Amino acid sequence: xxxxxxxxxxxxxxxxxxxxxxxxxxxxxxxxxxxxxxxxxxxxxxxxxxxxxxxxxxxxxxxxxxxxxxxxxxxxxxxxxxxxxxxxxxxxxxxxxxxxxxxxxxxxxxxxxxxxxxxxxxxxxxxxxxxxxxxxxxxxxxxxxxxxxxxxxxxxxxxxxxxxxxxxxxxxxxxxxxxxxxxxxxxxxxxxxxxxxxxxxxxxxxxxxxxxxxxxxxxxxxxxxxxxxxxx
Length: 232
Prior knowledge:
- The chain is mainly alpha-helical.
- It contains ten helices and no strands.
- The chain has helices at residues 2-29, 38-42, 48-76, 78-98, 102-119, 122-133, 140-168, 172-189, 203-217, 221-231.
- The longest helix is centred in the first third of the chain and has 29 residues, at 48-76.
- The mean pLDDT is 89.
C-alpha cells in the first residue's frame, strides 16, 4: 500500500511539474528569430507572389493534417506528438539555413507545416489533461494566461535579436530558431504523459480515431457551419 501511494504521489508530482516544463518549452518554442527577417530572406530566392503562394500552401497543408495528427496525439500521446512536431520544425529550419535556395525554402516550409500540425492543440491538451488528473483543471485559464505572457516575452526578445543575427549571417535566425525548437522538443520529452483517455496505438485505432474526428466536424448544423467558417 505504501509503495502504491509513493508511486501515485511521484506520478502526480510529475504531472504538476509538467506545467513548469510547459512554460520553459513554450519560451524556447516561440523564440521566433525569423519573424523580423523571413520576408527579406525569402525574397532572395522567391518573388512576393511566390512567397504568398508558399504561405498559402503551408496553411492548407496544416489544415489537411489537423485530423490525422490529432488522432496520432490521442493514441500515441500528447508529449510525443509535440516533441515530434518540434523536431520536424528543427529539420525544416535547418534545411532552410544550410541549403539556401528556392527548393529548400519550399521543402523546409512544408516540413515545418507538418511539424506545426503535430504541435497544434497537443501542447494545450497536455497541460489541461495534466491539471485535470491532479484535480486542478480550474487553474487552466491562469496557466494559459501565464503561457501567453511568456510567449509574448519570447517573441519580443527574438524579434530584437533576429535582425542582428541576419546581419551576421542570413541563415543564422533560422539556425538559432531551429536550435531553440530542438531544446523545446527535449523539454517535452521529459514531461509526464497523463494516463487520462489513453488507448493503445494501432493502425486500426488510428484510422478509426481519424474517422471519428471527421464525423465530429459535421455532427450538427452549428458545428458544420463553424467548421466551414474556420476552413475558409
